[in-house]
Each structure stands twice: as structure tokens, then as C-alpha cells.
Amino acid sequence: MKYKRILVIILLITSLLVGFSYYEARAAGPILKLDEEVRRFVKSTDEGWVDNTMSNITRTGSTSLLIPIVASIPNYELRMDALTGFLASHTVTETLKRVTGKTRPRSEERKYEPFSGNMSFPSGHAAGTFAIATAIAEHYPEYRRYAYAWSTLVAISRLYEDAHWFSDVVVGSAVGHYTTKWTMDLIEW
User: Fold this and answer.
1) Alpha helices, DSSP H only, in 74-165?
2) What is the pLDDT of residues 15-53, one digit of tens each?
3) Residue 181 and residue 81: Cα distance in Å, rounded?
4) For the chain, what are the domain ranges?
5) Helix (H, G, I), strand (E, B) or coil at 103
6) Rounded to 5°, angle at Cα 99 from 57 and 131
7) Which CATH topology does 2-186 take?
């Protein structure tokens, strides 16, 4: 029964976010303008050491690194909450990426072409790291600020890597945080 609720929640979140992305694509309103402004600011501060630092930080959010690290967490409940939250958020982000087909900023062309292979919206790095940070924060509140500081740095690094728009990172972060909160509420280990 609990797994059915998780699936329903994931489907609802995905549907809402698909609607949001299509609204953004058609409206060309404040979200689009904010994305462009943030990108201009990031590009103006993206120099030597910043670029190198952000490249290294972004690597800490890759799935190939996160899964083995999370799988080796000795606290069983934290490990399971982090893995479940990560997998749920990964499911949502990967579905959204394919359905929306939003181009990355570095392509210099902002388009939405569903099922085209364009996979900018939302940020998977932000979703994954916020999913894990949320599980850590729930189990060890004294480490909350460090967990969220790390996930925030990873999200910001995606802007510096020109891999995502600001809105991609914000939505990815929210997906990671809230899917983990919901899965932790629904499943007890």
C-alpha cells in the first residue's frame, strides 16, 4: 500500500513539473528572464580558479560516485532512506528530462523538444545531492548545515558548468528534497 502511495506521489510531482516546464516554454516570462540574468552573472564571475573549483565540486554529485558512497553508509536506516530518496528523485528527474526535452544553456538555443535527447530540466545532480542531504539532515540534525551546504554547492556548480539554467537547479533541488521527505514519511525501515 505504501509503495502505491509513493508511485502516485512521484507521478503527481512529475505531472506538475511537466506542466510547469511547458508553461515556462510558452510564457517567456519572469522565469526565463531570471534564468538569463543568473547565467549572465555566473559567466561574469567564471574565471580560472572558480571554474576549476566548480568542476571538482560538480563531480561529487555524479550518480556514479553517489550510489557507492550511499550504499556504504553504516547506519542502515539512513542508508535506506538516502537510497530510496535518491532513486525516487532520480526517477522523477529522468522522466522529466525526457518528457520536456529542454536544451542546456551551453547549446545557446533555448528549446523544448520532448524525447529529443535534450536533458536539462531538472538538474539530476541537484536532485540527487539534495535527496541525500535531506536524509542526512533528518537522521543527524547536527550535520544538516554541512549536508545542505554541500548539495547547494553542487547545484551552483551546475550553473558554472553551463549544464543547467537556474530554474533547472531550483526544481531539481526541490525534487530531491521533497521526494526524500515523502518517501521517508511513507516507508519505515
Assistant:
1) 76-100, 124-139, 144-160
2) 666 666 556 555 557 778 888 899 999 988 877 788 889
3) 9
4) 2-186
5) coil
6) 35
7) Vanadium-containing Chloroperoxidase; domain 1 (1.20.144)
